[in-house]
Specification:
With 456 residues, the chain is α/β, with parallel strands linked by helices. The chain has helices at 9-17, 39-51, 65-76, 112-123, 143-151, 186-196, 214-221, 256-268, 287-294, 339-347, 368-378, 409-421, 441-448, and strands at residues 21-24, 30-34, 55-59, 80-85, 88-92, 106-107, 128-132, 155-159, 163-169, 178-180, 202-207, 226-231, 234-240, 249-251, 273-280, 298-307, 310-318, 326-327, 352-356, 382-385, 389-393, 402-403, 426-428, 451-454. Helix content is 30%, strand content 27%. The longest helix has 13 residues, at 39-51.
Length: 456
């Protein structure tokens, strides 16, 4: 096996500085890497640590800006949250029901997950809180959590259309609810389940389409009870409120959604052979793997094992030709964050790739459907975007465009990967959003052989 590489200091400096980046065509990638900790699991570890009694010790925590926002919010809500070393954090929680009223506005930055999950937590505590975020987050819909959380008895004041900033008046005497998700969203499911923790009685979420189940897994890991009943393929997920959650050790696996970028880069560059160690393989997250395998990708799962209640594996990825396929709408929840990078893979594949069921992409950190299709078109790719579908016709990719990141980390990273394989370099206008989920991205990619650097 090839020697394991660590990010170089120069690359790390590029990441931290933000500004425009340029990615140029490179040779085959090689090496063994590990990507940063899973973002979804990291948020939940910090939140449940803050709601547990006793000490929670987290290793491998993603120290991206999104998770740091959650950590700061838990501190503002009264938990002791301490960084002991790289990715190594200690939390002393307040116990379910024990959060204090924050003395200032909770700023969730770019993170929809932080905002929605924490809205659930504070909605059933007898406190009033105020929440805001960056320009991207202030455009995103919060009505999807306001609707169910109001049923607990919480009060909300928002801008028009349920947009942030929000004031949240937590329910003094919350009542349990049963809520059917109108949209396949793990964030909404988690907001309701976390809200239900401080409500006497049973709170149930009905989930017609399965979404990532990190909240359910981690609640059990902290000693909570989560019941899942399948009724005609529909999941009824319930928690009984006011449990005593006990501090736990959490070892966060690498983020599959981050691994997606080096995976696709390696696939697109013939002769590449890389290994990504310790990648989270939760079935609610790994739809991209299924899709890439259907497209003819050479990806091997090595060492499949379990870590802290989550499946993990090492992935060996080898470069080679891909062909276009149809990606069914039912698969969308299990790869919802991976469409920009899948679309990049599709641009180099043989024939068209049709992706359906993408309406949710319109309300991510950017309108990802629009940003992906505009960016591909600017790079000379034949692409058609509908209201909730995307068709990408693969072939030779010219590149040579400037991509507007629109405060969206995944758009930035997807197009830097495109530039590694296109005929002409690609410029991305703002590297700063990458730090929300993948600090060290440039250095880690360059350690494999990409040529990403500051743009003039
Ligand atoms: C997340 C759920 C997804 C995903 C987001 C993280 C989570 O959002 O896009 O990056 O951690 O629960 P939705 O559940 O709203 O689709």
């Amino acid at each position: 096996m090839v020697e394991k590489r660590v990010p170089d200091a120069e690359g790390a400096a590029h990441d931290a500085a933000g500004g425009p980046l340029r990615s140029s065509r490179c040779e085959a990638l090689s090496g063994t890497i590990a990507v940063p900790g899973d973002k979804s699991i990291s948020h939940r570890a910090v939140i449940l640590g803050g709601l547990a009694v006793g000490e929670t010790r987290i290793t491998g925590l993603l120290e991206g800006e999104d998770v740091l926002r959650t950590a700061a919010a838990l501190r503002a809500l009264g938990a002791e949250v301490e960084r002991c070393g790289e990715g190594d954090w200690r939390i002393h929680g307040c116990g379910v029901g024990g959060l204090a009223e924050p003395s200032d506005v909770l700023d969730m930055g770019n993170s929809g997950t932080a905002a929605r999950l924490l809205a659930g937590v504070v909605a059933t505590h007898p406190i009033t809180s105020f929440m805001t975020g960056d320009a991207s987050l202030r455009r995103r819909p919060m009505q999807r959590v306001i609707a169910p959380l109001s049923q607990f008895g919480a009060g909300f004041v928002s801008r028009q259309g349920g947009r942030m900033p929000l004031s949240i008046i937590g329910a003094r005497t919350p009542v349990p609810i049963t809520y059917e998700l109108p949209v396949a969203s793990a964030q909404v499911k988690s907001a309701v389940l976390l809200g239900g923790l401080n409500v006497p009685g049973r709170t149930t979420v009905i989930e017609p389409e399965a979404t990532r189940d990190h909240t359910e897994r981690m609640l059990r890991h902290f000693g909570g009870t989560v019941d899942v009943v399948l009724d005609g393929g529909v999941r009824h997920i319930s928690v009984v409120g006011q449990p005593e959650l006990l501090g736990a050790a959490v070892d966060v696996p690498g983020d599959f959604s981050s691994a997606a970028f080096p995976i696709v880069a390696a696939l697109l560059l013939p002769g590449s052979d890389i290994v990504i160690e310790n990648v989270g393989m939760n079935p609610g997250r790994s739809g991209l793997l299924t899709t890439l395998l259907e497209m003819g990708a050479r990806i091997d799962l090595l060492n499949a094992r379990e870590r802290g209640g989550e499946p993990v594996a090492d992935l060996r990825v080898r470069g080679g030709a891909l062909h276009g396929i149809e990606v069914p709408a039912e698969r969308a929840p299990s790869m919802i964050d991976e469409y920009p990078i899948l679309a990049v893979a599709a641009a180099f594949a043989d024939g068209p790739t049709v992706m359906r069921g993408l309406a949710e992409l319109r309300v991510k950190e950017s309108d990802r459907l629009g940003a992906t299709s505009d960016g591909l078109a600017a790079c000379g790719v034949e692409v058609r975007a509908g209201a909730d579908d995307l068709t990408v016709v693969g072939g030779a990719v010219r590149g040579g465009a400037e991509i507007a990141t629109q405060l969206d980390h995944r758009i930035a990273m997807a197009f830097l990967v495109l530039g590694a394989a296109s005929e002409q370099p690609v410029r991305v206008d703002d590297a700063a959003p990458i730090a929300t989920s993948f600090p060290g991205f440039v250095a880690l990619m360059n350690s494999l052989g990409t040529a990403i650097g500051p743009a003039a």
